[in-house]
Specification:
Helix content: 10-25%
Number of helices: 3
Number of domains: 2
Shape: globular
Order of helices and strands: EEEEEEHHEEEEEEEEEEEEEEH
Largest sheet: 8 strands, mixed
Structural class: mainly beta
Number of strands: 20
Strand content: 35-45%
Oligomer: single chain
Radius of gyration: 24 Å
Distance between the termini: 56 Å
Length: 305
């Protein structure tokens, strides 16, 4: 049996024993949503992106999809100091860590080893930002979203995370490996599984049958929660390698992490065996207590006869 779950902006739900479905084939995304055409998702709540642009390095964090929208603000390494250029960054291996800490920050860090010494670029958005970081890292307590209204990273609820790699120019590639999701409040479903992937301009249009298809040169992985990602502590980590030998547009090779809301058909939750054991133990305890009460009352009843 399936049930539908949609998280409206501003909703606040308890995440006790909630689940996250990672590329889970038992989930159907947006096939029942009359608001969006099939294959579409809701507006982007925030997005963090790593790309090698034509002019150099770019790690950004924005309270919407993309950067540079009128009236908005965003964090980007190109605005506070480059970490290299196309020739120096193409083929570089970066370990990333995207962490959500409610009431504290949303933080994206990428680290590479240079001559055995780690080099880390970090973007921090939230109350934890108390001052500028050393370039090319940066931070902001609030960012201006659509309409120029400032908000903190957990100011809007969302139930979906999409990891998307793009490589749309010949000779470019985007690789993501070793993905991991850790959270004390959102437990992966039994059908959850990440995949290592490399995307090139020859990657055909495709996608899981129950999720929106990607265009050629794109590939996505999906995390769908039956709760609110914004109110949970979690960390998404892995490794990224982008190859950009020459040419192409600014956005031709990149990896994005997008928070959004979707309407999803999720499988009904099946309690774990331990849950059944606890439930039966509780029922047995209640039954034993009632029996003991009856036995205690028996002599009293006999005396009154």
């Amino acid at each position: 049996m399936l049930f539908r779950f949609a998280l409206a902006a501003g909703a606040c739900l308890s995440l006790t024993a909630a689940s996250v479905y990672i590329n889970d084939p038992s989930v159907t995304l947006n096939r029942s949503n009359p608001t969006y055409p099939t294959g579409m998702v809701g507006p982007t709540i925030w997005q963090t992106k790593y790309r090698i642009s034509a002019s150099g390095f770019d790690l950004s964090m924005s309270p919407y999809g993309g950067t540079g929208t009128a009236g908005t603000t965003w964090l980007g390494s190109n605005t506070i100091g480059n970490a290299g250029n196309v020739a120096g960054l193409s083929g570089t291996m970066w370990d990333f860590q995207l962490t959500n800490s409610p009431g504290h920050s949303l933080q994206m860090s990428i680290t590479r080893l240079v001559a055995g010494v780690p080099t880390t670029i970090t973007e921090v958005w939230g109350p934890a930002c108390t001052g500028p970081l050393t370039a090319p890292s940066g931070c902001a307590a609030t960012l201006n979203g659509p309409g120029g209204i400032p908000y903190q990273p957990q100011g809007r609820a969302f139930n979906t995370l999409r990891i998307q790699a793009r490589s749309t120019s010949a000779g470019h590639s985007a690789t993501i490996t070793g993905l991991s999701f850790v959270s004390p409040a959102l437990l992966p479903s039994l059908g959850s599984a990440f995949q290592d992937m490399t995307v090139t301009s020859l990657t055909p249009s495709s996608g899981p049958a129950t999720f929106p298809a990607d265009a050629a040169g794109y590939r996505s992985q999906w995390l769908i929660a039956n709760g609110d990602f914004a109110t949970a502590n979690w960390t998404l980590s892995g490794r990224i390698v982008l190859n950009r030998p020459s040419g192409g547009s600014t956005e031709s090779v990149r990896v994005t992490f997008s928070a959004m809301n979707t309407l999803a058909d999720l499988p009904a939750e099946i309690p774990e065996p331990s849950t059944h054991i606890l439930a039966f133990a509780g029922l047995a305890a209640v039954a034993a207590w009632r029996v003991s009460r009856i036995r205690l009352r028996a002599p009293e009843n006999d005396t009154r006869r």
